[in-house]
């Protein structure tokens, strides 16, 4: 049921021209600034906006084929969509919101409600089914919206900034839950976001969009290591490393340990920003608790800094000034020491 | 609405009063009859006189430079109410005796009202008379669309009298709020016949044909006119009443479909 | 949970003075009716058969006109608010014409279309032997003609204010546009529809000019309360005041009753 899309949409001064392929079970993040055409893409995939040219196909079914004059309207596409501000229908109970898609597709009311309740339980809000959406917190509403999108077992799941309306604390927990549900979802998922952490944490692959075009595509690690534009570099420099927390130490899944400032437990992500990584030619003396030997794999200059990709026990990305880069005499293959203050390491539950 | 009319009239009087005195000073030509009427004359007249009185007013103005004649046309009952509420009118011309009685009973008329014209009912049918109406008896035909005036308004009261005199039980489809509304429906061809005033048929022109009914003599509507006791301009008021009752005035009324005494 | 804003007590003077004037302007004429009413004769005035007949006809025809306006006007409001067709602004202007047209002219215009000699009415008369003028149907049509724009404008405003993205959400959940309209759009704008229906009903109840012109005035079939009031005024102002009060009391009571029902069950 993989998604294949190559479309062009003319939106006044902006022409959106994007191609994507998303395999079954794969999560693709479309990352980009506001106005880059991300939401336009999502509306085209949903069938809410007919493209000016191109094709959209999911598995064997063609949803859009402009040259052939094919356009399947939104309500005939087996998809689920989660909106930034959830858009639960205010006049229906949470259960009826989740059951809505089943009812429109012909399921009888008792069966639809039963299926809805089951999904509410799966997203952890079983007890809220009788409430009106207006009486849910942001996190609860977004969970209900996810249940509403997934209950119909869609072939394609579209997520439009699903976490951006939530406060920071709720966002962490909902993001972790979303990750679990996405792992269980057998179809293709397209996640639109402007938050690199969402993209890194949730997606198998990232497509970076600027001004209606794909400027870079690859795995999250790839993109953060080899940013092709300044924008990408600034946006996705983050190294996101999975591990298991134990007190103030995280044991990375790939080996190695990272000292962190806060106590953690269980599966987590460790996030390190490239500007907080310092490079040395010899093992540094003194305070830093996180010091790892590494080898410089590649160096990509952007602006006044050089992005250095490091290989070793702990794979990292470092930004150093061009002057420092020259003074250290760095070149691909050079062995270096990398250090990071524990207080500069962010930890997310996963 | 009636309040508006009163206010408007008062305003006109005020303005005319100021202008009038200034004109009088500037235009005091020796050839004018120093005793002739001048200033502003305000006539309250029944709406059915709308097509006749303005002409007479102009003739009076032509005879008496310095005189300005203003009209307030409305239903007689509305006018009577305005006069009893203190509207500054000089002359009241009513479409019936009962509304004139309201004014005379209040002691607001100077002298006896004089009947200057009469109106009789006539059958009005659309041009060509598609339903073949010939007389009052046709008003009882169920299949015809018939309009009468509501019994609450003068033409309706008159119609009741005429029908009773003729022994006809009419089958009307609507009781119209006034005679013009009844006539409009004839003009549009939406009713086959209506019992309205002869003057209205005359005013409607070619779109409407009138059929005289002998029984109409049972309900002749007399039009009395009176100078009002509190008339601001009694001299001009008397001149206007005289003109209305003169041969010239009577001819104009007859042309408009009125019957004259 | 940010800072709690404390509202200043009272109403600012520049708002208070005109507001009080507005209340006086609107309420004093009604108070005048109450004061001038011949309370002693009330009983005898009310027991006349014509009053009950006219009142019943008024309520029935205003309700029927509101129903007709809902059936035709809500879809029209949707078209005005949601369709992307050209000429919508022209259409909107045309729809609001009955608001500015003197109702009597509206009545004449209805004759020209639906009268015996009208464009459509002539055909109805000859082919189907259906004559509309001077029937209760004509009353409902005249009232609908005058009152429906109020409903259309209210509902269109409610539709514009409603978030159209809910309709997108419904589409992604498999709802075609008709299902979306019924199950999402209508409930979302229900308060606006209720407000529009109330306006429409009140306007229909008070309708005079178009009704007396197009439907005429015949007790029991076409004589509604406003017509009865107007004619009573020609002869017996006291009776007119009593009839006005009856109309006033019935309409205010109905509106209050509906308001209780609707607003306590309001969405959100």
Automatic annotation (TrEMBL), chain A:
Mop domain boundaries: 285-349
Lineage of the organism: Bacteria, Bacillati, Actinomycetota, Actinomycetes, Geodermatophilales
SUPFAM superfamilies (alphabetical): MOP-like, P-loop containing nucleoside triphosphate hydrolases
InterPro entries registered for this protein in UniProt: AAA+_ATPase, ABC_SmlMolc_Importer, ABC_transporter-like_ATP-bd, ABC_transporter-like_CS, Mo/tungstate-bd_C_term_dom, Mop_domain, P-loop_NTPase, Transp-assoc_OB_typ1
Organism whose genome encodes this protein: Geodermatophilus africanus
GO BP term (any one): molybdate ion transport
Protein name: Molybdate transport system ATP-binding protein
Domain ABC transporter residues, every copy: 1-236
One Pfam family hit: TOBE
GO molecular function: ATP binding; ATP hydrolysis activity
UniProt keyword Ubl conjugation, yes or no: no
Keyword annotations of the record: ATP-binding, Molybdenum, Nucleotide-binding, Transport
TrEMBL record, chain B:
Keyword Membrane: no
InterPro entries: ModA, ModA/WtpA
Keyword annotations: Metal-binding, Molybdenum, Signal
A GO molecular function held by the record: metal ion binding
UniProt cross-references to SUPFAM superfamilies, sorted A to Z: Periplasmic binding protein-like II (SSF53850)
UniProt GO BP: molybdate ion transport
Gene3D superfamilies, A to Z: Periplasmic binding protein-like II (3.40.190.10)
Binding site for molybdate: 48, 76, 179, 197
Leader sequence segment: 1-22
Family affiliation: Belongs to the bacterial solute-binding protein ModA family.
Stated name of the protein: Molybdate transport system substrate-binding protein
Gene source species: Geodermatophilus africanus
Lineage per the UniProt record: Bacteria, Bacillati, Actinomycetota, Actinomycetes, Geodermatophilales
UniProtKB/TrEMBL annotation, chain C:
UniProt-annotated location(s): Cell membrane
Keyword annotations from UniProtKB, A to Z: Cell membrane, Membrane, Molybdenum, Transmembrane, Transmembrane helix, Transport
Molecular-function GO terms, alphabetical: molybdate ion transmembrane transporter activity
InterPro entries, per the entry: MetI-like, MetI-like_sf, ModB_ABC, NifC_ABC_porter
Topological type in the membrane: Multi-pass membrane protein
UniProt domain ABC transmembrane type-1: residue ranges: 55-258
GO CC term (a single one): plasma membrane
Function: Part of the binding-protein-dependent transport system for molybdenum; probably responsible for the translocation of the substrate across the membrane.
Family indicated by similarity: Belongs to the binding-protein-dependent transport system permease family. CysTW subfamily.
Protein's name according to its UniProt entry: Molybdenum transport system permease
Organism whose genome encodes this protein: Geodermatophilus africanus
